[in-house]
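Two quick folds needed for the group meeting slides. Do the first one here.
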Amino acid sequence: MRDSRRTFLRSRPVKRLTAAGVSAVLAGSLLGACAEDGGSGSSTGDDGKGKTTVTVGVFGVFGYKQAGLYKEYEKSHPGIHIKENATERNEDYYPALLNHLSAGSGLSDIQAAEVGNINELATVQADKFTDLAHAPGVRKSDFLDWKWNQARAKDGKVIGLGTDIGPMSVCYRKDLFKKAGLPTDRDEVGKLWAGDWGKYVDAGERFTEKAPKGVSFMDGAAGLYNASASGYAHKNYTSDGKLDYKESTAVRTSWDLAMKAVKGKMTAKLKQFDTQWDQAYANGAFATVVCPPWMLGYIKEKAGDKGADKWDVAPAPRPANWGGSFLTVPENARNKDEAVKLAAWLTAPEQQAKLFEKQASFPSSAKALDMAAVKDAEHPYFGDAPIGKIYSAAARGIPNVVLGPKDQIIQQYIGDIGILQVEQQGKSPDEGWSAATKKIDDAAED
């Protein structure tokens, strides 16, 4: 089994990137999903003639079709035909979903939801979704607690079942670490910053003192900010749902770390997922990047053959999540009962493990993390890094983060406006912070 798994990891396609805001940016160049006509009900194709057609609305590539899971389900349920309606960009998909929910029509039987949107749906639209907490085949114990809670409404209703997640690691260049006098063994590298993102910045100071010419310690300060802030249970909102990011320890501590990295000239001043960032992988312009599982395929794609075995994976200072999605069933789904059964099956531990093997979607199922296909996974491109072990440990330590409807926009504006103004335009930290908070406050009033 190990040999087949290693072969998969060598040749796997770049998967759907599920981080908040990332799917939209990358869809055009990486996802390549083709939208099909929407709608529910009876099938109009030969494959589904005379069968009940369950429609599945997704953004990007969720991988169920590519991994053969739809065909497997249809084989064991001969009266069911599955039709996927895929939209490339979540920025197009999500507004359309809100419109369909408002109209009460045009919905697929199953609708995917990105983690950056799930809180808004659970808070504002919960009555428009089926409660999946006690659906047949669904067991809370199969899921990581924090993932289960992300889709839970205030009344306890669970509107979505978790698909993939994005536990963080740090990917680093062994050759560049060696030139800068830092350890290269992944266990020793992990010890450099274990327990504190401040130690990661300290390692950056050491690296910068002896860095190879033209090489920065990290890609950009926004990645550091995101990783640090995401490791706190309270980030932008209080437990009772009050927006308080300006007073948040997570936000202020992470902002200060990002500013320290910029001041110390540790960053390559790059905006993630821009063309320049892509090129920097091939050029070896930076030595570390915050790295959820879905980032591995991206690095392999952009760094190419010459980056093979130069990159490695070490545990992040603290467990945190970046990305992930859910499957929901609208109350107005035409084939609601069959949709619930399919959603439960697709997110069951066995299917999550299969999806990881074939599409690299890291499971949100606690039970799946213990399966050999996940826990024993290694990645040859990253020096046979034990990614199953590293990411499973991180996944189990992720806190139950209090989510809010503006989390996605707060992260975007702090990173793309506040941090970039300081990093790329030379503005002061106070000026960058003011610019970001003005945009956030304007958005919060909408």
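Then this one, please, same format:
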Amino acid sequence: MKKLKNKFLIFIIGIACFITGIIAGFIFKIYDKINIEDLIYKEDKTIQSASLPKPTAYPVGNLTVEQLFNIDTTKVQRKKLVKKIETYADLTHPESDIKDITFKIDGYVEELYADFTGEYVKKGQPLVKIYSPQLVSAQEEFLRAYEYYQKMKNTDDEVLKKTAKDFYEASYKRLLYWDITEKQIENLKKTKKVFKTMTLYSPYDGWIMEKFVYLGSKVKAGKPLFRIAKHKDLWLMVKVYEKDIPFVKEGQNVDIKFDAYPDKIYKGKIDYVYPMMDFKNRTKDVRIVIQNKDYKLVPGMYSKVTIKIPIGEALVLPETAVINTGKRQIVFYQKEKGIFKPLYVKLGRYVDGYYEILSGVKEGMVVANSALFLLDADAQLKGEYRKLNEKASIGKKK
């Protein structure tokens, strides 16, 4: 039985080997007919030929420098320069317009007539009523001096008469110094009634900008009770940047445009140039007096200011024609068609896109006005700057 199983297994293995051989032979026949190289390296010649550049009728070598780099030129010329300064400014009260109203003795506020900030008051209008024990004592002293003076008027003793008169006049002046009016003093003499409170009247017309007292407040001698300003003429404080300071002077005309009234241009004149600098913002204050007859302008308003300053005629070039590295300033003049050479120049003032040329070129010379970085690189490659420096050093030795 065991021998029979072994023979059957050998038979199966033989059939499997036979079938495998037949399949392998069929595969090799197909492989011989396929061209592997054609499959891997075949090129799409139609697409390749379509991407090739077409021949041109004008070779690149025939183009000029101007056509290649688009270099335009300009002439050194004389031009009337007008410096235009644009800056900002704020409105403020004139220092001479602000008035502090004070009381010259200690006391307490019993009545407050001007009771809110921003109220307009007229000269002579009552502001506050103050009770002061010192004021009561001063009035009683004045009445005694007045009575004593009346008694001594007819005496033959000139010394007593003079003493009484001096005492009366001193007490009278004391009340005047405390802002008690002559009318109030005369009324005191007639009635002999001491008033415990004193009404303080406004000595000026204007708006109450600040109020420092309230009903019942204690008043100290010399401390302000109110701050009043008139607003009739205002100061416009213009901020001038450091680079523009040399151009600004007193008497120059300016155009002013307030954000609140963008359609109106106010005219002004520089009244004063302050001698101090703002270290933080690097600006200097310039003052312009603005008339405010219609009271439309209010302190704190923001405005834009334009100052146009004629600074005369000068030899100039556009800023695009100058290479300014800080240490050197170079222009490229056109020696002949398509050929440019570098020249050192000395620059003066810069005004609205133009450099003033102090030396290095002459009026009428043609210089490059664009593509300066290409010309600069070309000059460095050819050693043009070195030759220029050598010529300059030889000229100095001579």
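Slide caption for protein two: Confidence is low (pLDDT under 50) at residues 36-68.
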